[in-house]
Amino acid sequence: MREQRTRINDSWIRVRLKLKSKLGENIYKNWIESLELVKIEKKSAVFNVSNSFIANWIDRNYRETIIETFKNEEIFIDDILFEFKNKNSLPFSNEKNIPKKRDINLSNIKNSLDNNNIELPSSPLDKRFTFERFVVGKPNELAHAAAKRVSEIGPVTFNPLFLYGGVGLGKTHLMHAIAWQIKKTNPSSRMLYLSAEQFMYRFVQALRFKDMYGFKEIFRSVDILMVDDVQFIAGKESTQDEFFHTFNALVEQGKQLVISGDRAPGEIDGLEERIKSRLAWGLVVDLHPTDYELRLGILQSKVEIQTKLHPGITVNKGILEFLAHRISSNVRVLEGSLTRLFAYASLVGRSIDIDMAQECLADILRSSERKVTIEEIIRKVADHYNLRMSDMISARRSRSISRPRQLAMFLAKNLTSKSLPEIGRRFGGRDHTTVIHAVKKIEELKNKDLQIAEEVEILRRMLEA
Ligand code: ADP
Ligand code: MG
């Protein structure tokens, strides 16, 4: 008997070592190291652990691996069971014996939380998505500033931070940047970043394995929770419900939330009203579509990175300007174009010139060609300012008409590929110098007058939508 016991203990030592290399140092330290093997009985390994939460977690996540590793040691078990250190034996395994909520020793769970030994199911972070690599311009400066503020983990001033904007404008980049920053400056703070889809997946799993308790403990033990692309849970009722409770629990504890979505909270169809209103509680910031300057800035910064990857490849003058001008608002596409150009250039061993760009990016350039017509622009602007279309092309010069007209010309210049003379012609046969003047005027006003800037932005969006 004693002999057998020694043999089992020895093999547990070897099994532990193997588990360490299979599961990694972190998991091993958090979960396996403190496991005591009590006995092997009826093809089950019985372990002693300090509380049922730990037991539950190990059973849920590492059961198969443990059984498998025992097998390699020629010890054939088909289950693992647990006893608790400070309680009478309360073995359980799988769903059949998971203790009901009232059986769980709360003070132990609290301890395990305080010890921070619940592993957080964070999604992997892209190492390129840092603040250093985020180019700031007018369209994203507010979002950037808010993200920076959150990453400083000072007192929570706005909760949640809600970031929204169209695809490829940097929402995920900013959230990862917050995460990296916090890892660097506050490595001990418990941060959890995941997509809403992952949130749902975890939730469904928890339901399936009847482990809502564990789920809640994880999500409510964090210092900062970031959920990306929240629009994903629209229409998914029970996930929304859980999200709502998680949200409230964290806000109540003064924990920071950062949420992103593809549009403003109030505009996400299929999202419950109470969630919409919660999401708008804190600071809601909008990542605007990129403007020319920001695109150019991003391209310049990405060229530096690409040049490191492809030394010797040069970019001819005017190429970045060409790309910034021609490739609309999505940064991902912009970035992809540059990557493609560099790959191509290094293949053929030439510098990147305009012909190469035209040829190599033909598909992208074609698809981002603006489909907006001058006609539409005139109509939308006229509608917006309660004018008639005929006013827009008339010779009338009163400010109330000439300003919207200039704005329409500005938009025509920016949203279509029509030449200045062509635009002039379409606005009642005006000269191209009039168009140039209008474009300059609006640019100037945009910089001085926030209201004009906003109106231009609104109109642009309506037209591009
Ligand atoms: P979203 O989540 O809003 O759809 P992402 O954050 O995934 O967009 O951004 C798409 C790509 O564009 C990423 O590769 C990201 O690094 C890049 N990107 C977006 N905005 C910027 C920026 N301001 N500076 C540098 N890169 C950016
Ligand atoms: Mg994203």
The bound ligands are: adenosine-5'-diphosphate, magnesium ion
| Strand/helix succession | HHEEHEHHEHEHHEHEHEHHHHHHHHHHH
Biggest sheet record: 5 strands, parallel
CATH superfamily of the largest domain: P-loop containing nucleotide triphosphate hydrolases
Instruction: Determine the structural class based on helices, strands and strand pairing.
Output: alpha/beta
The strand count comes to 8
Rg result: 30 Å
Number of helices: 21
Outline type: elongated
Whole-number average pLDDT? 86
CATH-derived architecture of the largest domain: 3-Layer(aba) Sandwich
- Number of spatially distinct domains: 4
Biggest sheet, spatial arrangement of strands: 5-6-7-4-8
CATH class of the largest domain: Alpha Beta
Helix content: 55-70%
Question: Strand percentage, roughly?
Answer: 5-15%
CATH topology of the largest domain: Rossmann fold
Low-confidence runs (pLDDT<50, min 5 residues)? 87-115
Q: Kindly report how far apart the N and C termini lie.
A: 77 Å
Give a verbal description of the structure.
Helices cover 56% and strands 9% of the residues. With 465 residues, the protein is α/β, with parallel strands linked by helices. The chain has a 5-stranded parallel β-sheet, with helices on both faces. A 3-stranded mixed β-sheet has the order 1-2-3. Helix 9 (237-252) links the parallel strand 6 and strand 7 (256-261). Helix 5 packs parallel to helix 6 and helix 7 runs antiparallel to helix 8. The model is unreliable at 87-115 (pLDDT under 50). The site of adenosine-5'-diphosphate has 17 residues, from helix 6 and helix 13.
